[in-house]
Amino acid sequence: MKKSRGRTGRKRRRKCLQSFVDGVNCSHKLEYIKLKKWLKDRGFEDSNLRPAQFWDTGRGLMTTKALQAGDLVISLPVKCLLTTGTVLSSCLGEYIVKWKPPVSPLIALCTFLIAEKHAGEKSLWKPYLDVLPKTYTCPVCLDHDVVSLLPEPLRKKAQEQRATVHELYVSSKAFFSSLQPLFAENTGTIFNYSALEWAWCTINTRTIYMKHSQRECFSLEPDVYALAPYLDLLNHSPNVQVKAAFNEQTRSYEIWTNSQCKKYEEVFICYGPHDNQRLLLEYGFVAMNNPHSCVYVTSDMLLKYFPPLDKQRNAKISILKDHDFLENLTFGWDGPSWRLLTALKLLSLGADEFTFWRRTLLGDVISARNEQQTLTITAKICRFLIEETQHVLLQISQLKRNKENLKNHLALVEALHLEDLKILQKSAEIICNLNMATT
């Protein structure tokens, strides 16, 4: 009997230990106690989800009971959601309605977040604001030295993102000034660039899609944002499926799972079939072993491997451009994409084969020589990208030693490149096998 009790005790301890290995329950922390009370006052009924800290994903939600496909994960009443309706019913409403030209729904929400954060203890949304991240890792927040280490297509998008937020700030300055009667302090110090950057990142990384009817007091940009306290603690996994939508009957935003989840495990949702460059750009993180991840080949890199003296070169580039074959050329876990191979096949057409370009775009085999040259150049591009990625990883490891303050940001970019390297090495293997099969 004693033995059996000891075994049960060990089992229980092991189970308890296991739950701590998966994630450490954080629901005892004051900010979460306050948030749950605040949500309860607004009609949210406690679910089986608990805030927890996970070693691989950071902060998230764990389930206290096993979930089956078809189970309701969370149901958040409309009173808990922060939308443009919330903003209009606040003291900012009359200023937004009066302002011409109308502000965008995005700026209305940014303004509300900044104003409420500034209000501190007086804010009705304080329990939610207290659990929001203080800083973000979207490219717009990254140091210039870190951005320069991103893969070229992402670097370009990161610069565009920065320009968008800067333009948003400059174009909203006059509107921010109009709010001066609401504040004792100068609006210029409250609504500064870093405050807008924080609010923009909060909305860009955390809002759920929820369509609202067009209001005259807003510009014509779609009003599709809603901030969802507590629900927004759910992390992304590319390997789960969920159904998420606003339920008009229950007047709640609901998430239903199509996947299973064990007791005490982290509950995930899926933001969409995004590759890692998109995840980093929009949400500020990278998903390891992401099945949607790929490495992009720029058109400049593509053309580098073809002789500039080819008389049909300009015509070939023109055809690729007209048929949208100079964008989204990638290497993935399953090797070079069909689009990349097709673009390379067309560029590899001999002078006597050029008339068959339409057949090439349809995927037809033109000649053994064309197939072989395509694979040879694909292998060269892949090898070049591997060497380039390894070089950047070396730069990152040196910077990590010298720039302590950038360590977290550098680790994020390093994770992206390490994933890229795995994809490229897998692609190199696949190309090698294809080469052997055709020779």
From TrEMBL:
- An example Pfam family from this entry, by short name, is Rubis-subs-bind
Which molecular function GO terms apply here?
Answer: protein-lysine N-methyltransferase activity
- Domain of life assignment: Eukaryota
TM stretches of this protein: none
Domain (SET): residue spans on this chain: 47-272
Protein name, as recorded:
SETD4 protein
Question: What species is this protein from?
Answer: Ibidorhyncha struthersii
Lineage, please? Eukaryota, Metazoa, Chordata, Craniata, Vertebrata
